[in-house]
Specification:
Elements (H helix, E strand, L loop, with lengths): L1 H8 L22 H10 L7 E4 L2 H10 L2 E5 L6 H10 L2 E3 L2 H8 L4
Parallel strand pairs: 1-2, 2-3
Length: 106
């Protein structure tokens, strides 16, 4: 409910939400949310990219064989920023950097 409210405040309505109201084994860092999303949307790991600002998202992506991108624009603490840069391959400081990464030129 909190996730849906937050997105709604920013004009976005997510199709699927797997939040903290689920049992622990059905939320990050466990594979269940990503597996369910891929199943419901008919996608394979190579079709996906996980964007998150914390380690839990990166851990879930790794379990599922999905590429992970760090959303660094929400970080205000050097400890988190440094950890994410050191432990995950792709770190973006701005939404614009992420957008440019995701756009596929034909």
């Amino acid at each position: 409910a909190e996730i849906v409210r937050h997105y709604a405040e920013n004009g976005v309505k997510p199709d699927l939400v797997y939040g903290w109201e689920l049992p622990p084994e059905q939320r990050k860092p466990f594979a269940y949310p990503m597996e369910q999303i891929m199943l419901k949307l008919g996608m394979k790991p190579q079709d996906c990219v996980m964007v998150d600002d914390l380690k839990l998202g990166g851990d879930m992506a790794k379990l599922c064989g999905v590429d992970f991108v760090t959303a660094g624009w929400s970080h205000e603490f050097d400890e988190i920023t440094n950890y994410m840069k050191e432990n995950f391959d792709i770190y973006f400081k701005t939404v614009e950097e992420l957008r440019n990464y995701l756009i596929i030129e034909e």
